[in-house]
Amino acid sequence: MPAKKRTTRIGNWYKADDEKVHFIRKRKAPRPSSLRKINPGQVLILLAGRFQGKRVVFLKQLKSGLLLVTGPFKINGVPLKRVNQAYVIPTSTKVDIKGVDASKIEDEYFKRTQAQRRKNEQGFWAKRGELNEEQQTNEKKRLEEKRKTQKSIDDALIATVKKTALLKQYLGARFSIGKTTRPHDLIF
Questions:
Q1: In the chain, which end has fewer C-beta atoms inside a 10 angstrom radius, N or C?
Q2: What is the spatial distance between Cα 131 and Cα 40, in angstroms, rounded to a whole number?
Q3: Would you list the domain boundaries of the chain?
Q4: 87, 44 contact by CB (below 8 A)
Q5: In whole angstroms, what is the distance from residue 10 CA to residue 173 CA?
Q6: For 112, left (φ over 0), alpha (ψ -120 to 50), or beta?
Q7: How far apart are the C-alpha atoms of 70 and 153, rounded to whole Å?
Q8: Is 23 or 62 the better-scoring residue by pLDDT?
Q9: pTM of the predicted model, to two decimals?
């Protein structure tokens, strides 16, 4: 009996460039998760991003599920910032934040403005100084409001930080792991 001839499949078939591809999202966006043993006033260590290794104070959880943290800016240069809780290590150190009013700050506070986006071609090539007068005044007003908010929160935090010995130096110091450090033995 003769053996059946095998048919081999020839590679993938690629669509033409002008053919529309309909993208269907197969999974839903994750819902904001609950906090994992993180309380307001707790000191966190940032693990990623521009401020990697910095210690910050947790203020509250935003509606998006992100954490609102601050350095304070005067101590270690970390401004009011949103952070995913997957990128922080909670420590046992706590700061009293009774005098801090972070109720006004929500996710809209961090939204980018039209001047920052520069969607159209003219806006893309324009520098900050080349914005029209109305955009410049709006941008200055927005930045001034952000500075005032940062200063009010920092002033309240720094007053409580100064009451505890060595807490200012602790927040100002960067966290890092050296060659001889045993990460599994660390207690935060």
A1: N
A2: 40
A3: 42-176
A4: no
A5: 60
A6: beta
A7: 9
A8: 62
A9: 0.73
Q: Amino acid identity, residue 54? A: K
Residue 37 predicted with pLDDT over 90: no
Q: Which amino acid is at 33?
A: S
Which amino acid does the sequence have at 118? R
Given CA atoms 59, 170, 52, 181 in this order, what sign does their dihedral have? negative
Phi, psi of 12 (to 5 degrees): -90, 155
For the chain, how long is the longest CA-to-CA vector? 94
DSSP 3-state assignment of 45? strand
Q: Determine the 3-state secondary structure of 102 from DSSP.
A: coil
In angstroms, the CA 21 to CA 45 distance is 43
Q: Note whether 112 and 88 are within 8 A (CB).
A: no
Whole-angstrom Cα distance, residue 108 to residue 142? 12
Of 97-101, 160-164, 184-188, least confident by mean pLDDT is 184-188
Side-chain-side CA neighbours of 159 within 13 Å: the count stands at 9
72, burial (CB in 10 Å: exposed 0-12, middle 13-18, buried 19+):
buried
- Nearest in space to 152 (alpha carbons), one of 94, 64, 72: 72
Task: Say which DSSP state 98 is in.
Answer: T
Q: In what order do the strands lie in the sheet with 42-46?
A: 81-83, 67-70, 55-61, 42-46, 88-94
